[in-house]
Amino acid sequence: MFLGACRLKNCILTVVVGLCTSLSLLSCGGSSSSQVILPNRVLASQGVTATLVFGSLVVVNGQNDTLPRVSPLSAGNAPGLIVVSPTRNIAATFDSNSNSVFAVDTSKQTSIGNGIHLPGPTSSISVPTADPTVYAAVPTATVNGFAFLGAVEVLNFSANSFTTIAASNAQTVVSNSQGTELLVFSPDSDAVTVLFPGAAVPPVDTSCYTNPPNQVCTIVLDSRLSRPVNAIVSGSTAYILNCGAQCGGTQQASVAVFDLGSLTVTQTIPVDAATMAYLSGSTLYVVGTPPTAPANSCTNQTTAATTCGRLDIVDLSSGTVTSSVSITDGYHSRMDLTTNGQLFIGSSNCTNIGNVNNPTNGEIRGCLSIYNIANGSVIFPPDNGDVTGLQGFTTRHVEYVAEGGQLRVYDTTKNILLINDFVPQGTIDIVGYVGDVKAIDFF
Fold first, then answer.
1. Taking the model in full, what pTM does it have?
2. Strand residue runs (E) in 235-377
3. What DSSP designation does 353 have?
4. Do residues 141 and 164 make contact, with C-beta atoms less than 8 angstroms apart?
């Protein structure tokens, strides 16, 4: 009886320990075999080449900057660019290893269908609505019967299929809020291609090559357009960024105010350079790197860099530039404004100075600039590498920055790396190259 009682107690103890272990794992975010939906989630693209580690979308706890015990989401071996829908229910990423786009249902934290293979690489995708339809610009796509390259792929993840809309050298695609009208930009072109994807005929629509303008495609030619590369859409208006001389054009950079209804340019606003912009109310922050002096000089900076970019603050009400400051150079493609007024600006192929991994008393500088909109000051954090992702939050004064393949956490009240028990080095420890970062919850 004594031995039997001991065995019974041991069995009960084993069950209790097992339950406690299971509950413990759940409280930490779940085991690797279960998918637990946590609040305040952020996705980081993890590109790796190691034998035992695969690329994926890593879930980050955006409240305390930790990696919960949650299964990563499959996204090929080299996911980079991440785009989320306005409602954040859909996230899409591009895997450069397989030239495929993967989509995720963030509410379930699961993949939607399989990855859809593209006919070439893309650096621009759009998810304009809560519907799992993704648009991808593929500049090297081939279309049978035509010598031209380029297309916008309309990816339907519900049906795991896509429709090709041929568009010459399509480099960048920008959608209106309904996904019914697309602005397409091509390098070495002074035109804007406007597509209406709902009228496209699958599997391959060649309306842009045969008889434009038509119900699918209109090519807008205007002498005020000079190497347009991107746009910010607000309602029925698009602010088109004319890259101008920086991208090989013959005109000064400018912002072209474009009416999406009539497909006409109504006004242009000259700026120093324009490859990226951020709209806040009636203020448009425009950045780029002018190709010549004195516009690209590092005014009021003590730096070893000989070339700098420019941030122009544009008042859209008056159509004028109200102020301009020097920032890091390179090709600017990332911007984010925090709730406490810190404008994070990121570029690639900039002038890197020093070595953040071997710091000395000298200058360390990379591709990140932080502009304080209240006092007009600019900070250049001591880091190196391309800035490929930015994400701020409304409930925390921090900014996630993917720079040089690392995921940094910045304290935006001081504009320095956040150092605490969770991120003692100011970096979230993700194995591999972090190419982008996006919040998939509103917080």
1. 0.91
2. 237-242, 254-259, 264-270, 276-280, 283-288, 309-315, 320-327, 331-337, 342-348, 368-372
3. B
4. yes
Tell me the C-alpha distance between 5 and 92, whole Å. 57
Residue type (1 letter), 380: F
Strands 191-195 and 217-221: antiparallel
Q: How far is CA 139 from CA 209, 297, 314, in A?
A: 15, 33, 31
Distance (Å, rounded) from C-alpha 91 to C-alpha 163? 20
Kindly report, residue by residue over 229-250, the tens digit of the pLDDT.
999 999 999 999 999 999 999 9
Residues 226, 192: Cα–Cα separation, whole Å: 10
Tokens of 178: 């309904």
The helix or strand, by DSSP H or E, that contains position 21, with its residue range, turns out to be helix 2-27
What per-residue string of b and e applies to 67-97 under the rule 16 or more CB within 10 Å gives b?
A: bebbbbbbbbbbbbbbbbbeebbbbbbbbbe
The residue type found at 419 is I
Distance (Å, whole) CA 181 – CA 176 = 6
What tens digit of pLDDT does each residue of 30-77 get? 333 457 899 999 999 999 755 556 789 999 999 999 999 999 999 999
* Residue reference for tokens 């005929």: 201
Taking 3-state DSSP, the helix, strand and coil percentages for the chain, each rounded to the nearest 5, stand at 10, 45, 50
- DSSP conformation class of 88: S
Q: Give kind and range of the element (H or E) at residue 19.
A: helix 2-27
